[in-house]
Amino acid sequence: MLALSHYNSSASPLLPRLVNDSGGKAEVMVAVEGLLQQRNFTSVEPTTSGIIAVILSMTLGIISNIVALFILVNAYSLQRRRSKATFLLFATSLVITDFIGHAIPGALVLRLYLSGGVSPEDFDSSDGMCQFLGGSMVFFGLCPLFMGCAMAAERCLGVTKPLLHSSLVTKTRTKICLAVIWLLALSMALLPCFQLGSYTYQDPGTWCFINVLSDTEEVDVAFVVLFSGLGLTSLAVALVCNTISGVTLVLARLRRQPGSHHSAKSHDIEMVVQLVGIMVASCICWSPLLIFGLMSVIRSYTGTIGDDLSNYKTLMVMGVRLAAWNQILDPWVYILLRRTVLRKIYLITKCQAGLRGTILGRWEPTSYPSSEKNEVNQV
Description:
Blueprint: E1 7-8, H1 22-40, E2 45-46, H2 48-78, H3 82-114, H4 128-160, H5 162-168, H6 171-189, E3 199-202, E4 207-210, H7 218-255, H8 266-302, H9 309-324, H10 326-336, H11 339-353, H12 367-374
Antiparallel strand pairs: 1-2, 3-4
């Protein structure tokens, strides 16, 4: 989404030398008043390291998503198994969403950096750029979480109830599900347009998000609770579904008789491993921002934030920085956790552990390549 950095404030001019006469006191008062006004309008300049961090983050995210998109599109064009094609359709849509969600907000943040950012006095203002940037963060934040949840639920149904899955899940319904996800996330992002919440500039003045720290109202609390609640619920559902899928596949492997046909389940293993990778990345990257947002808005609304305001500003900045990495890590799940890579990792692990003939020996590496050749056209 974006990368943030701290600012270096400009140095303040020295106060004039104090004198003892009344005229000197008046002169000092005028000087102090002028100094305060000058300080209020002194802009902060972003550090060079911060600008470099934004550029590197954008470059890495864009390149990673392009590589992953190329791999997924190529795999989708060669895939004939319907369950695998559905998964690849979800995955391709997720990578495209991550790509756009990394490029657009990142470009806006970079523009704010280069323009010197927004001064603290203007944090409460909400211009068109702030509205668009805040809405983009909400939209492109919820979409990956919703898609990860939908993919986990689809795979859980495919692993536990394959017959029901084959009758219910089709490409058309998958596309409808994707459209509903995008529409739901867009509806959430547009709530401030109907006075149901608001977007404001956040410290250090280079990004916009839901108002959680100053002059919060009931609608702001409701907006944050809805945003964080939907995000955390998606992560919880994905965790449950992926756990069920993983346990089911492990039990099926352990119960398999030696020499029996097993290639039909190899594609399920690959997809579940990738889903677990997506879920772990999403939990690590998004949970802090979702939780910090809830904590901040509740304490701000109840008036108990007090002297901890600076700490909560720091937590929010840390949370959004971490969330930005989700769109960088997601594509690497598909790049690194592919069948060929998993097969090589398995071979290396098996050779080092020396577990030939044991239970782990049932996980033959030939199951990965052979399944592609023996798959039946079910489309």
